[in-house]
Model the fold of this input.
Amino acid sequence: MPRHVAIIMDGNGRWAKKNGVSRLAGHNQGMLAMKEIIKKADMMGIKYLTVYAFSTENWKRSQEEVGGIFNLLVKFVGSELAELDENNVKVHILGEYREKVPGAAVASIDRALETTADNDGLQFNIALNYGSRAEITRAVKRICHLTESGVIKSEEVTEEMIAMALYTGNDNGNIPDPDLIIRTSGEERLSNFLLWQAAYSEFAFTDTLWPDFTPEEFESIIEEFSTRGRRFGGRI
Ligand code: IPE
Ligand code: IPE
Ligand code: MG
Done:
């Protein structure tokens, strides 16, 4: 059983096109799929679930689409927060959500973080305004600050320090690296997601468009994952 599963939820736009509805309707359907996967992951005893919800590159999309996605986030928190809290789910955000993100969405996020802060069940990480390169750049700046102020010497910088300065580090309770990264919609790339953390992750790609992704498919991917041998550079 993987401890940490990360998902690149892709294909909402193509699902919308295929079904003759607006892109936003596609994102809405994607949110419904996400709700079911959170429940399933929790039931399966997965400890960390990370979803890629909005990348630092997604700002290139139309104002209408971007605004709509953040409105959906407000809707999601409004309808789901009580149940998430009841189920002892702890919400975290990976990314600079206070930058550029509309005020209503920031307020919803703050409410979700505060409400679930003391929970110790499934940790649900939402990668929002997330980009791995931005994350690594921020970590480098933090470490430069430590060396400039004489707290450590540059020769003393370790991999652990870099990991701790990422969003997945100290700020969010030191999340272990993802064991498995799933991407839907047939695309086989990381798109600036968890570049450092994915060093030894397993990958699973499916042609299913995200809104059509079901808890059953999730479970079968996890089952297949559990048959894989991981070596981390060592020998079997
Ligand atoms: C993923 O679906 C959701 C976000 C990136 C916010 P897309 O909107 O990328 O869907 P496609 O790739 O256009 O089908
Ligand atoms: C990655 O999907 C980001 C999210 C799922 C939030 P994109 O659809 O933005 O990625 P590219 O542009 O196809 O690589
Ligand atoms: Mg896409």
Remarks:
- The CA atoms of residues 141 and 165 lie 9 Å apart.
